[in-house]
């Protein structure tokens, strides 16, 4: 598990996201409610090429791949569920505006 969390973005309540198509920002809400709903569970969800997973009470997002989903499912015992997947709507973390595409490329082929 350490592997994926080190390469993923930790998403918190009120994380600011940037929408490049409209050059606007917004805050993500509902993360605390989501974490409470899945408290004590190991779950993941994929949408539009983004893989979100909840581990140790935290929500993480990372570009999806079959290897990553298989790792979560088969090696870590995660269950697939349907829930909000940050950045699956074309938004990106505001703090990564300049480096988002680079992050995507690096995490698709880490180290």
Q: What features would you describe in this structure?
A:
With 111 residues, this protein is of the alpha+beta class. The protein has one domain (2-108). It is 29% helix and 29% strand. A hairpin with a 4-residue loop joins β2 (16-19) and β3. The chain is globular, with a radius of gyration of 13 Å. The model has no long low-confidence stretch (mean pLDDT 90).
Could you outline the blueprint of secondary structure elements for this entry?
Layout: H1 2-7, E1 9-11, E2 16-19, E3 24-27, H2 31-37, E4 43-47, E5 50-55, E6 58-63, H3 66-75, E7 79-80, E8 92-93, H4 100-108
Parallel strand pairs: 4-7
Antiparallel strand pairs: 1-6, 2-3, 2-8, 4-5, 5-6
Tell me how many strands there are: 8
Q: Would you identify the regions where 5 or more consecutive residues have pLDDT less than 50?
A: none
Report the structural category.
Answer: alpha+beta
In one word, what is the shape? globular
Q: Over all CA atoms, what is the radius of gyration?
A: 13 Å
Annotation keywords:
five-stranded mixed sheet; 4 helices; single chain
What does this entry show, briefly?
Helices cover 29% and strands 29% of the residues. By secondary structure, it is α+β, with helices and mostly antiparallel strands.
């Amino acid at each position: 598990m350490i592997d994926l969390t080190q390469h993923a973005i930790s998403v918190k309540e009120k994380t600011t996201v940037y929408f490049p198509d409209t050059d606007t920002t917004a805050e993500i809400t509902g993360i605390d409610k989501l974490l409470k709903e899945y408290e004590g569970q190991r779950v993941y969800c994929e949408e539009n090429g983004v893989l979100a997973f909840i581990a140790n009470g935290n929500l993480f997002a990372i570009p999806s791949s079959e290897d990553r989903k298989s790792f979560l499912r088969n090696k870590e015992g995660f269950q697939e569920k349907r829930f909000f997947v940050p950045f699956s709507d074309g938004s990106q973390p505001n703090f990564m505006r300049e480096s988002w595409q680079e992050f995507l490329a690096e995490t698709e082929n880490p180290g």
